[in-house]
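hiii, so i know i said id send this last week but things got crazy w the move. better late than never?? heres the sequnce for the chain we talked about at the cafe, plus the structure i predicted for it. fair warning i was half asleep when i ran it
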Amino acid sequence: MKTCRVCNEAKPLECFGVNNKQPDKKDYKCKPCNRKLRRDYFRSFDGVITDIYANEKKSARERNISPPQYTKQELKTYLTNSVIFHKLYDVWVASNYKTNLKPSIDRVDDMLGYSFDNIEVVTWEENYKRCGENVLLGTNCKTINKTFYIYEHGIVTEFTSLRGVADYTGLYYDELWEMVTTGNEVHGITLYEEVEND
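okay and structure toks below
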């Protein structure tokens, strides 16, 4: 038996998670209390920001875009000074933490990474809807078929998606999209998007 330092109840050892820093290798708080503390933290103002920043880094890895161009502390300062973030957070709390009302960060230009000039505060529901709309409208060319051409050392190579270009070059999507829009050459490579004629 072990007494939880949070609820002060004596419980069987299997009610405690593993903590190798403790002499008995068991956490000082029981699993139910640990879950409640974790839930309460991620419902707090700081916890929501921590969750947003972690999701941004995860999203950047999964979407093959550059990591956030700010630190967690810089994001916290940015959101602390955001009137709309405070408003959405208060509405979310008043709703008893309904997922669709939770404050979220959306990238304005889906082809660019997370930077203060390319993010805006929206609800989770609005962010989710925009993602689907971008695919349907063809403004998210990472997830639809488009033809791209790489000019490298006098040789032109055709790709049917930006993902293919990313796999070939090892560059991030936002770096590739900047090459498309500016015509800049990177590492001896020039990237073109096929233009459809009406």
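btw Strands lie at 2-3, 10-11, 16-18, 26-30, 103-107, 119-123, 148-152, 155-159, 189-193. thought thatd interest u
miss u guys!!
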